[in-house]
Amino acid sequence: MELQLPPKVTDRAFAQIDAINASAGAVKSLRVAVEGGGCSGFQYDIKLDDPADDDLIIEKDGIKVLIDPISLPFLQNATIDYTRELIGARFTIDNPNATASCGCGTSFSI
Fold it and tell me: Does the residue 2 lie in any domain?
């Protein structure tokens, strides 16, 4: 049985959150949540937010990524990253729990 670990956040993702905060002149955290819906059954909801009391907080140099307790089991052992591609730049999630995903990368099934 694979050990269940909280998601990892790459240095690129932390750097992008910091850049977004610097350009907005505010200090927000990146919330990564899993919701029902999407073309594969579940979808990621990634947005800037403030911490809640029951969030798992992954922090580096004061920059925070938040995961609520409902989403956490779906994100065990996942990697949260930020990529720049020809189609654009975005936060991505490499999720070993997903058995299938759609082409957009924001919807998956377990």
Answer: no
Partners of 56 in the beta sheet? 67
CATH (domain of 58): 2.60.300.12
Q: How many domains does the chain have?
A: 1
**Which H or E run includes 18?**
helix 11-24
What counts of helices (H) and strands (E) characterise the chain? Answer: 1, 9
Q: If pLDDT is split at 50, 70 and 90, which confidence band does 89 have?
A: confident
Closest CA to 9 of 32, 25, 27: 32
Residue 72: what residue type? L
Radius of gyration of the chain (CA): 14
Q: Which domain holds residue 24?
A: 8-99
Whether 110 is in a domain gets the answer: no
> What is the enclosing helix (H) or strand (E) of 78?
none
Return the minimum-mean-pLDDT range out of 2-16, 17-31, 52-66, 70-84. Answer: 2-16
Mean pLDDT of the chain: 86
